[in-house]
Structures are given as C-alpha cells and as structure tokens.
Amino acid sequence: MTSDDATALVVIDVQNDFCPGGALEVAEGDRVVPVANRLMGRFPLIVLTQDWHPRGHNSFAANHADAEPFSTTDMPYGTQVLWPIHCVQGSDGAAFHRDLETDRAHMVVRKGFRPAIDSYSAFFENDRTTPTGLDGYLKDLGVGRIVMLGLATDFCVYFSAIDAVALGYSVTLAEDGCRGIDLDGSLAAALADMRDKGVAFAQSDAL
Asked: Taking 50 as the threshold, does the pLDDT of residue 3 lie above it?
C-alpha cells in the first residue's frame, strides 16, 4: 500500500461491555459484528480499537464521591462524562465480542489506559492533543481513506471520525455498522456534526 488513496477499515470498540449484557451496554451493539466481519474482506488494512481502562480510571463515576453514572465533572481537559466501570484491562468486559473476527486485524489500538484522562477517539485522548499513534501508523502505510464503524456512534465513533477528517483523511461511516448511546440528544448532534465536517455516510453493502 503506497498510494495516497489506500483505504483502512477502522472498527471502533466492539467489546463485550458495549454489547447487550455489558456494563455500558449500547442497544443492539452486537448487531455491528456481522457488518464488521463482512467489511474486513473488502479492505487491505484492518484496525481495531479497544477501550483499556485501569480500574481506578478518573472517568468512572465510582471513583468520585457521590457521583452518579452519566453525570459530568470538570477535568483539566474539559467536561467529562462519568461512566459506569467498564472495559477494565484484562477483564471479560474489555475483550472483543467473541464473534468479531479479530485475527484479521493488522493493528489493535488500546486507548484510555492513562488513569487521569479518558480517550474516545482512535487518534487522540480527550485533551485533543495526546496522540494514540494511529495517525502515524496509517500515514506511514500511505492510507488516505478510512471506512469506520463500531460503538458508540455518538462518542468513540464520532470523535474518531471528526479527528480523522481534521487529520486529512477521507472518511466514510458505515451507518449500519454503528449503534449509539444517545445521552440527551447526543446521537443527533453527533450525526449532524459529522456531516457538517465532511464525513460521508453509506450502507455497508455499498462499500
């Protein structure tokens, strides 16, 4: 892959804790798995991302006195949603969904492992400046286009997509390969902002 139009498939956080029965369940989250598996056969480079938190992570409501899950708090890098404990390093909840064909991946990006800062995006932590290393990896391989899907549409997928556009990639969201959380209208806002920023939308069968 040397041309600037080489395409990568980036599959965001298809982990047990984001699927039905998980600690931070996304409704129908498991429905993205067959879409991801189908698309893996169509692209030359496959990247998976994985939330990978220490149990004492500052984004967990349980680590803040009297804080309720899904409330917010101010962090040095801005407003942070306080989540239920999820995707703890080495736990079953942090593992990829059992039906996801992980052996086909060329790279796994683990994010959110620094205790003091959360990481939604595949490219940057929530301070919007600390890189995960994915941009360098993709650019070293000549990738110019990204097809993206996964969980959840309005958080990790959204931030990954807008960061990818800002970094100069052409980004297409496989709509049927995504599911959202929708906290107080966050899903509609995320979809609108992605469109405004130039993210293309398509059904997986068209890709």
From this structure: no
